[in-house]
Amino acid sequence: MSLPIESIKEQFLNTISEQNVVVTAATGSGKSTQLPIWAATQGKVLVVEPRRIACTSLAEYVASLCKTPLGERVGYAIRFETVFHDNTDIIFVTPGVALRWYFENKLAAFSHVVLDEFHERRWDMDLLLALLKQYDQHRLVLTSATLNADRLSSYLGAPILHSDGNMYSVEEHFIAKEPRMMPKKEQLTDRVTVACKQAQEMTNGDILVFLPGKGEILACQTALKSMGTLVVTLYSGCSKQQQQLALAKQPQQRIILATNVAETSLTIPNVTCVIDSGLERRTHLRNGKTVLGLDAIGRDSAKQRLGRAGRTQAGVCIRLYGQYAPLIERTPPEIQREALTELVLAAGCASSGVDTLEFIDPLPNASKDRALNILTHIGALDKRQVATSLGNLLYPLPIDAELGHIIAQMPSGALKQAAIDIISVISVPARVYQLPNNVEQLEQLNVLLPNGCDVELVIALLRGKLDGLLHIESEGLNEAKQFSNQLREAFSLPSLEHAASYDRKALINAMATAKPEWVFVKRQNRRSGFGNGEIEVSTSNTSRISQTTEAMLVLDTFALAGKGTKQAMTMATIAAPISLNSIAKLGLATPTLTGAYIDEQGIQIEAALQYAGVTISKQTMIAEGNDLIDACVMLIESGDLFPGLYDTLSQSFGEHKLYYQYKKVEINLPVINQYIHTRLQQLGIHEFEDLDLIEESDLYFQEVESWILAPFIEKHPIKVILPELELSASYNFLSKRILIEYISGARKDAPKRWELPSWQGYKIKYKKASKVVDVK
């Protein structure tokens, strides 16, 4: 049977022999399999696939079409796995692999590069396209099913080729309480079960259910076991067996529970019904970092999901949200919703800097500038935005650049190894372990690791010392071990099997020194809240941090929707207790003057060491140097030194301000405390005895000559004293209005006009509490 994409074969071959090309085609048209084969007739082809599952499965399928073993004419390369040789004509790779190869030799072995499913708009695909456009040495083929092709065509200066494909009609049904109901996570498993039963009555074909993540997939898998069908799971990191069950037709009806990996690229045969939860896991920027959230899909994804039901015959799409739900039109590109540290570093390694590249969408300035600041600060980029030797070391590592910098900052090989093992677990996107529910196992764990420290636990886990004490996700643990060995090799350290012992306290202190913002102290306003001065976190149920812990080093977090509010909470998942004394010794706390008093020894100051607004220690000492002047300012304000001076200064500042207001002179007067501080410095106060050499009048404030200011204030007093009544006066010279306000006194009635100063031509109001009356 001929594939729909065959209709553009001749046109495609003629075009790529001369120029780049943009190909739009419906899902299932054959673009992901046929275009690489056709392009290979003109040279060696690199096919970049956004997802690992698509990368390996497409390579296998295209190899079968070419009737050659996988790894001969057709191969693939993903992280930690390569199946190809030097003479392989078509190699499917993930974007990360393609970028590393571009960095090594600018993809010199390839004449053609196919960027498949470009509509997913991953940051690494956007960067790769910008690099290839600038280098201009490869024939580029960009493909997608839902692409804004005109913009991309203009960006590349490339023609658009389109194949309609064979799309059968798909009947939509909506299960929602009201037409505008948005996708939601509540009772998702129950609602999917109901929809699957409804789907079984409507079709004999397979049912494809789109769910946001692995957790929801496993929950639904358990609930659907009693339905008498083959339940298959399909998500990034799922087993090879489950992938094969999903990608090959089975003799019995299937319910395939999948994430977005099933939206494009993958061919799942015999699907006649799609159940769309309307949800996906999507990245967002939060406090300058990329976090994963649960979101409603865009209309572009909704269209892709529906199309899966109409590939081979008429189908059905059941939506678990309202027909008129206000979905966004398109999912925003990753560069608009993620931290750009990796992108900017990769650009610095593979080009002359990120600002020399032209992206299809401009990078958000705030995210780009933050990335540049971070990378320049850690020494990964120079001032020209080009990678340094450290940057070139960090870039190929399978971890975030800031985490790589932490490893480089560790003061010894043993601590570097320990940091690598922690970071390897953190860098695995899937869950690696769970704490046991069994009381006996928990007790054994606490005996083996008595410090309530997650950092200690993950190192022991990776080094094989916790067998039988945790619920271990074998795939996640294996990936973490691969990360560890790769990082150890990059830093010229022994392999994981020969890991060195380490000092736990030294490790925590070294990491706190390298990343002080990772240190959080317990807040006094919430029982489980910890703060670092910018954000607050709470300990999650996956952490072993004790309720009595006063401070902790937080290495990994996740966002959790708050109960009853839309505000998310940040939960600490991997943390280590750190003492308040260590925070003080590491110089992370700031000394703050909290009090002062005079005794026979001189001026004593009470100081507090504070971190994130929390006092971690207090001390009393003799005031010296700048501390002496700070203490004098505090004592003058309290009246314990030069009694009455502070009130005199306050009145003088108020009078000057009023005079300048009247004269329409814009002058910013100093803050009183700052004025006193500066004046004491000018007077040469270095020791307590120096105070005996100055008079109170030495600290008076007099910018305007008294012979000018005194008569003005006599006519425009700031305070007015009447029998049993003290008032303040504020002036609006422009509108000729005066407001007098009650300060103190037993008098109940408002003052009379004749009692007040001669304010001719002014309208006067009197205010007491919230009541304002005219003075007559």
From TrEMBL:
InterPro entries: DEAD/DEAH_box_helicase_dom, Helicase_ATP-bd, Helicase_C-like, P-loop_NTPase. Keywords: ATP-binding, Helicase, Hydrolase, Nucleotide-binding. Residues 187-351 form the Helicase C-terminal domain. It holds the Pfam family Helicase_C. SMART domains: DEXDc, HELICc. Residues 12-165 form the Helicase ATP-binding domain. One of its GO terms (molecular function) is nucleic acid binding. It comes from the Bacteria. This is DEAD/DEAH box helicase. It comes from Pseudoalteromonas luteoviolacea DSM 6061.
